[in-house]
Amino acid sequence: MDTITSTATDEFELTPDVDLGTLPTETILGLAAASSGRITREVGRFVRFTGELAKREGWRAEGATSMEAWIVERCGVSLASARSFAHVAERLNELPHLAAGLSSGELTFDKVRAVADVASPRNDQELAEQAKDCTVRQLHEVARTERGVPRSRAETDYEARSVRFNDTFRTVTAQLPPESYAEVKSCLETRARALPSDGETRWDQRVCDSYLEVFRADLEARGGASPHVVVVHAALETVTDESSELAGELEHEGLISAGTVRRLACDATLIVAIDDDVGHTMYEGRARRFPTDSQRREIMRRDRHCRFPGCTNVTFTNVHHIVLWKSGGPTDLDNLALLCQHHHHRVHSSGWSLTGNANEELLFVAPTGRVMTSRPSPLWTTASASPPSALEG
User: Fold this and answer.
1) Residues whose CB falls within 8 Å of the CB of residue 75, separated by 6 or more in sequence, listed in order
2) How many CB atoms lie within 10 A of CB 173?
């Protein structure tokens, strides 16, 4: 094993054969801090570059619909992170002192982001100096002061009200004014206490059950006729064979167990679609130009959103023939892909090309020659597999 002969942070190279367990804590503290500084400087460079790209609208060269969309596709970050980078980059174009502090590593991205919206050429230098000595939390307080006299607490609470759904983790997060919060809490806890308990169900689970009862009671009040549509994709065997363990998929949500599929099917309207031997639905060949409703539903399940890399557009999308129908392309799933209107136009524009099998991999080639790949949702091919134990119940 190599020995560390120098602990100077600028000289240290972290290679696979270095055993960090042999280094003193003080050394690792210094190395970690130095790494953080280098990250800050690189983030500063990245933000400056994206700011210039935003001014030029350079992201259009690679088919993106916005600076944020380009960052998502090119840099592999979340949309939330991309929005933060793009927003701060745009602001820093006229804030040289904050930009210099970020580029030099004196100011972290979080510090700059905290004051970016209240900074101007007038107070840019002052805020940059202040940011060197303040924490991120203190800078948020500075920003609130810069915005002026705060509104009343009641107004702030009311305007902050929200209910958000996280489809990935199936969570519901609510931010309520004090009186509404007290009303909802009292209602749910009163219902939870009235629910029969086996003595083993946790209190938070009983509150969850009471939460669901509120919506079911509303359904019963309307005579049991639900206006809502919940779509589950499952093999016919899952519905008809009580011993089947093949998973199903709750549309837009994720995998569910075979038992859950059968429970939902008890009161559901069933639509039967014919799949091939690997679970891919419906082939029309040249029999018709436009995809059927069943094909459209399956394409949405496979693609989730526009197939152009980095694009998450769901609302304004069309089913596109990869090999054009008038050129002999079949109306089959492997030749059909979901594209938003913007990228649908792009692939018909001079210099762009789209090839591949939509069930496996698509290749988008930009006029610059850059090749971008797109694959189906990984859940599309998982719904026919045996479910993990976590799905059972």
Assistant:
1) 82
2) 9
The SS3 of residue 58 is helix
* Strand duo 353-357 + 171-175: pairing: unpaired
Q: Output the six-digit token pair for 35.
A: 């790494």
| 324 touches 353 (CB < 8 A) | no
Which structure tokens are listed for 224?
């049991």
pLDDT tens for 150-165 read 556 666 777 788 898 8
Residues of the chain predicted below pLDDT 50: 1-7, 149, 272, 274, 278-281, 384-393
What whole-number distance in Å separates Cα of residue 20 and Cα of residue 32? 12
- Dump the DSSP string for 137-174: HHHHHHHHHHT-S---HHHHHHHT-EEEEETTTTEEEE
Contact 9, 31 (CB under 8 A): yes
The answer to whether the CB of 311 falls within 8 A of the CB of 343 is: yes
For residue 93, the SS3 value is coil
Distances (CA, A) of 184 to 96, 181, 203, 242, 267: 48, 5, 16, 40, 30
Query: What residues does each domain of the chain span?
Result: 20-146, 157-221, 229-393
The CA distance from 276 to 284, in Å, is 12
